[in-house]
Amino acid sequence: MYICGSNFYFMSRKGKVLVAMSGGIDSTVTALMLHDQGYEVVGITMKTWDYATSGASKKETGCCNLDSFNDARMAAVQHGFPHFILDIREEFGDFVIENFVEEYLAGRTPNPCVMCNTHIKWRALLKRADALDCEFIATGHYAKINQHSNNRFYVSKAVDDLKDQSYVLWGLQQDLLSRTLLPLGPYRKTAIRQMALDYGYPELAKKSESYEICFVPDNDYRGFLKTKVPSLEQSVAGGNFIDSAGKVLGKHKGYPFYTIGQRKGLDITFGKPVYVTRIIPETNTVVLGDEEDLNQQEMVVTKINWIKYDGISEGIEATTKIRYKDKGTLSNLYNHENGVRVRFYEDAKGVAPGQSAVFYEGEDVIGGGIIQRPVIN
Prior knowledge:
Blueprint: E1 2-4, E2 7-9, E3 16-20, H1 25-36, E4 40-47, H2 66-79, E5 83-87, H3 89-105, H4 112-131, E6 136-138, E7 143-147, E8 153-157, H5 174-177, E9 180-181, H6 189-198, H7 202-205, H8 221-228, H9 232-236, E10 240-242, E11 248-251, E12 275-280, E13 285-289, E14 295-306, E15 316-321, E16 329-336, E17 339-349, E18 356-361, E19 364-375
Parallel strand pairs: 3-4, 3-6, 4-5, 6-9, 10-13
Antiparallel strand pairs: 1-2, 7-8, 10-11, 12-13, 14-17, 14-19, 15-16, 15-18, 16-17, 18-19
Helix pairs in contact: 1-2, 1-6, 3-4
């Protein structure tokens, strides 16, 4: 039995679950929903970064501020289950932020949310779940977890296509998936907002959502890089913009400050739209081209994590997403060295090394990996 304020909390028949609570609507409703379903809920809020060292130019926003911590704790107190705050700034910073900086310096475009979920957040949750004798962990992600007839656990898309977050969960391994609950997968966001109202949290139902990187709350990743690597701006300034034939078109501010597909902020005019089509860090060169130059027929993906199956049959058909909001492109997958070679049925636009490629069979995630490079047409 736990004691939380004046409320007594008894053991549950459905099991004990550690719920990641950011203080936002999704994670709060997740915790309350599981509580109502009869689980023994323990709330935990993870502090992942420190505003004072983030290099941001405005105050903390999103899930990593004191107001959010207090909102999460208050919901737990009001509903009679315990809540803890877990400081994982050191392990988060050592991996996620360092990886973020290193990837841009290597001319790639990282996806820190995938890295955090895969290597930090779920592992940290599972470690504390074990310490608290929790059988399950839960988050407010919009996705589903199912079990195949081969006994493997896998991620599927959420009912709400606009909120589906299956793309950022491809890196979760079987020991994590087998103990994870994702209660929001069968619901649309409108239903979750109504639940928040029904639970008596009208301010939560109207709370704005942040789509920024948590440690770059002003969404200025270039400023963040300059803060983390003070000599960077001076060391990379003055590199060349070139076209696909190698002709010098002008000077740029430094290759780490550009991403594949970028059109705005190039500070160079041609009387027509031009796009970043390739980044060459070895020579501090940024290649520009027309929109059609972003099209790719093939790419190589490494650091693969298979979910639904323990591998693939050669040439298996899958829908491949190359970014979070990508609708996906039908493709064939082939085993290739330490990864997968993806051959698209039709050109994919803006293949960016460093981003995640996630493979779907219908609604189900087969697996995913990190885009190593496009195969030049």
